[in-house]
């Protein structure tokens, strides 16, 4: 097959160099074998005068490169796990958002010794309302619209604390924001064509949490157990543990059908689940300072959780790659040296 040649005006141009830099996502041998063909194909489709790859081309190249790397590791199940992890992350955010809005943000700010922000205790209410809107979008407009809304929710989660710091308005604490950002990153991979079960989960989750909150408030008979963010660390830790347990249960069920995507999704959600308990873990390890871990000790605890999560995922990838290479060598060793035909037991034919 003839490799496409880029248009003369693009040969040696900055645009060609920038496309080639995106090839770092591919394995080295794949770059050497197919790099010129890939770059030539993209350059043939760009408009005259363009100096930078379009965002669509950049995402397409990086995604394809990641897919090739995972194929080399025998870990394509990790890609298949992204929509499942995203669905779990979004529904956890919806549940936490409904809980914090009803049990904290609508409570009397005097309980938290804060100046109110309109009808809410803090600017954090904007974050939780935003994620509830993302959940509604995922139900009504799944696919690209839902992923765009998730990106907006993530930006809002990051921006609100900055606005709070600049304006002097109260905002949610770091032990709430850290897992929300981690889950928001996971939610960016929401599926393009979710089934009706996945689409119905956000409103169902929000409805269940709302009903539970109303019932809990009625059972308190005028009491106020959750009056501020400072009274929620235990519930947040439970939410993280419940999310992890449910995804693990789904993963084990799918593993029985030779589908490892659920187990990969569990590994992807180890970090956000751990961050939900970072406040409690920090207090247990480092002690307390004014009712909670000091910012430095919380940062150390959260950083340790991030490192552990990354190490677990890296170890799983390394183990899968080693098994994949062992199987490949065994298949090649059993192949006929003359024709390359493999035994029926190995080929499955």
Automatic annotation (TrEMBL):
UniProtKB keywords: Membrane, Transmembrane, Transmembrane helix
Domain of life (superkingdom): Bacteria
Signal peptide annotation: none
The keyword Amino-acid biosynthesis belongs to this UniProt entry's keyword annotation: no
Residue stretches spanning the membrane: 76-102, 122-141, 148-167, 173-190, 197-216, 236-256, 263-286, 298-319
Protein name as it appears in the record: GlsB/YeaQ/YmgE family stress response membrane protein
């Amino acid at each position: 097959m003839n490799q496409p040649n880029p248009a003369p005006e693009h040969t040696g141009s900055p645009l060609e160099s920038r496309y080639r830099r995106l090839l770092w996502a591919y394995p080295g041998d794949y770059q050497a074998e197919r790099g010129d063909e890939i770059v030539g194909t993209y350059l043939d489709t760009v408009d005259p005068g363009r100096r930078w790859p379009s965002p669509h081309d950049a995402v397409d190249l990086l995604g394809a490169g990641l897919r090739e790397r995972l194929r080399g590791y025998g870990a394509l199940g990790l890609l298949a796990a992204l929509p499942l992890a995203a669905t779990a992350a979004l529904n956890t955010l919806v549940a936490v958002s409904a809980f914090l809005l009803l049990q904290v943000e609508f409570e009397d700010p005097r309980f938290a010794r804060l100046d109110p922000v309109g009808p809410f205790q803090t600017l954090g209410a904007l974050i939780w309302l935003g994620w509830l809107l993302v959940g509604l979008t995922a139900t009504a407009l799944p696919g690209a619209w839902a992923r765009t809304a998730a990106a907006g929710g993530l930006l809002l989660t990051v921006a609100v604390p900055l606005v709070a710091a600049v304006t002097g308005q109260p905002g949610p604490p770091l032990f709430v924001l850290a897992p929300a950002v981690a889950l928001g990153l996971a939610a960016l991979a929401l599926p393009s064509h979710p089934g009706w079960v996945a689409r119905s989960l956000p409103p169902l989750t929000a409805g269940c949490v709302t009903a539970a909150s109303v019932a809990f408030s009625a059972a308190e008979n005028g009491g106020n157990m959750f009056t501020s963010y400072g009274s929620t660390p235990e519930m947040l830790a439970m939410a993280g543990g419940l999310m992890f347990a449910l995804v693990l249960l789904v993963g084990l069920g799918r593993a029985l059908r030779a589908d490892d995507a659920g187990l990969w999704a569990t590994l992807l959600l180890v970090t956000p689940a751990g961050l939900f308990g970072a406040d409690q873990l920090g207090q247990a390890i480092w002690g307390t300072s004014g009712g909670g871990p000091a910012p430095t000790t919380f940062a150390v605890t959260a950083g340790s959780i991030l490192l552990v999560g990354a190490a677990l995922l890296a170890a799983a990838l390394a183990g899968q790659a080693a098994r994949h290479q062992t199987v490949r060598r065994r298949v090649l060793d059993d192949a006929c040296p003359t024709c390359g035909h493999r035994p029926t037991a190995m080929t499955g034919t």
